[in-house]
Amino acid sequence: MEGKSIVFIRYFKQSQQMNYQETTNYLFTSTPMFEKEGATAYKPGLDTMKHMDEHFGHPHTKYKTIHVAGTNGKGSCSHTIAAILQSQGYKVGLFTSPHLVDFRERIRVNGEMVSEKYVVDFVEKNREFFEPLHPSFFELTTMMALQYFAEQQVDFAVIEVGLGGRLDSTNIITPILSVITNISFDHTQFLGNTLAKIAGEKAGIIKPHTPVVIGEWNNETQPVFDNVAKENDSPIIYAQPCNWDVDFELKGNYQAKNKNTIAAAIKTIENIGVKLSESSIKNGFEHVCELTGLRGRWEKLGENPLVICDTGHNLAGWEYLAPQIDAVKSPVKHIVFGMVDDKDIEHVLKLLSTINQENHFIFYWTQPNTHRAIPVEKIQAKAREIGLEGNCYTTVSQAFSAAKKAAKKEDFIFIGGSSYVVADLLSKAF
Question: What is the rounded CA–CA span in Å between residue 11 and residue 299?
Fold first, then answer.
């Protein structure tokens, strides 16, 4: 990887300034990218981030930040909190990952993606500084976002954790509020193989004297949160059922718990002196996608047949997705499905097997365009072991085309299993 990076860097040093496509290719290929490479690109620790933060003059101290971690629901909660603040008239930065179609989706101000020019200029201006540091893709992207928000003079920035919390690149910030949505088994090779260990990593975003909202908890995780909060003298708020009369734009069974988490976060933000009107809160909930550009959360892409995609990518997510798919009334359900490595595919397939007994399913096994994709033949083999039959398609677009061709107007098409499956779909078909 390092040798490849040097060759790439030297090439562009001998040429004129990169354009946007060349710049993003540079970021994707010359810095280790977890989304594409998996474990080999994971770079725990904050030393590099602290060095870059010092170089850029600690840009995140120039605005208020809200830090959001958790196994599932981070994106939905981050976008909705940003939408509510934006509805109040604040200028709001939003940093999330991964992107679905365009790299710039990761960095937004009031819903608008960072410009191509800014991405190009940031890389060109700072390459000589960061190249000797060998930052990861996510470290470099995080630094770009924090600096961009400072230059844009935002009032608030909602910062979503990439992986874990304690050692995540984003954990150099000192937020006004920390939010931990939930804890479940994901990325166990990095975060631990028990809920308590994973909770300990997520709880690493809790800062001294800073309130933290916990969206979901159990007997194993609550003591961890309580202890870390006590050590930091941090007020801890456990989200309670929310009866706010708002029509949450984000659909999906799992959004009910996200709504509780968001409500607790908003109440806490108000308690620390941030002005938010009822109308702003209502508008943020009801127009989160329009205001922030969020996609892929039980997103309707078509009717007659009904077409839905969702980025749910692990067992915890599918425990909500499976019954929701089951609840859709249609004669035949066409499931376009793929996953990436380090996910509990066997148990996800078992969930699909359970609801398959009550439905007429047709499965279209596929794999997204990433090195981390589980080969489609492997998915087919694992599915057959539990009685699920389906044809293999080497690309998501091929699988979706086959589903569209086979589906009647009254049928249902679902595409998911991974953010990368949805990303491939949106980039090619929508």
Answer: 41
Q: Exposure pattern of 389-416 as b/e (b: 16+ CB <10 Å)? A: ebebbebbbbbbbbbbeebeeebbbbbb
What does pTM read for this prediction? 0.89
The rounded percent of the chain whose pLDDT value lies above 90 is 79
The per-residue pLDDT for 29 is 83
Q: What CATH number should be reported for the domain whose range is 299-429?
A: 3.90.190.20
Spatial distance between the Cα atoms of 215 and 233, rounded to a whole number of angstroms: 19
Give the Cα separation of 300 and 277 in Å (integer).
30
Q: Cβ distance 95 to 170 under 8 Å? A: yes
* E strand intervals along 221-348: 236-238, 299-302, 306-310, 333-337
Of the CA atoms within 13 Å of residue 214, those in its CB half-sphere come to 23
Q: Are 285 and 291 in contact (CB under 8 A)?
A: no
Q: What is the pLDDT of residues 309-347, one digit of tens each?
A: 999 888 888 988 999 999 999 999 999 999 998 778 999
- Distance CA(329)–CA(331), nearest Å, equals 7
What is the spatial distance between Cα 321 and Cα 174, in angstroms, rounded to a whole number? 34
Q: Are 263 and 226 in contact (CB under 8 A)?
A: no
Rounded (10°) angle between helices 47-55 and 137-151: 30
Q: What is the pLDDT of residues 158-215, one digit of tens each?
A: 999 998 899 999 999 999 999 999 987 554 454 556 888 889 999 999 999 999 999 9
Cα–chain center distance at 409: 32
From the list 195, 199, 177, the residue with the least C-alpha distance to 185 is 195
Helix (H) or strand (E) holding 112, with range, is strand 112-113
pLDDT at 9 over 70: no
Pick the CATH number of 41-292 from 3.40.50.40, 3.40.1190.10, 3.40.50.740, 3.30.750.24: 3.40.1190.10
Question: What is each CA distance from 302 to 310, 318, 411, 422, in whole angstroms?
Answer: 13, 22, 11, 14
In contact, 427 and 412? CB cutoff 8 Å: no
- Cβ neighbors of 190 (< 8 A, separation 6 or more) are 39, 42, 44, 163, 164
Domain boundaries, the chain: 41-292, 299-429
Q: Which residue type occupies 249?
A: E
Residue 39 pLDDT class (50, 70, 90 cuts) = very low
pLDDT number for residue 313: 81
Q: What is the DSSP letter of 15?
A: S
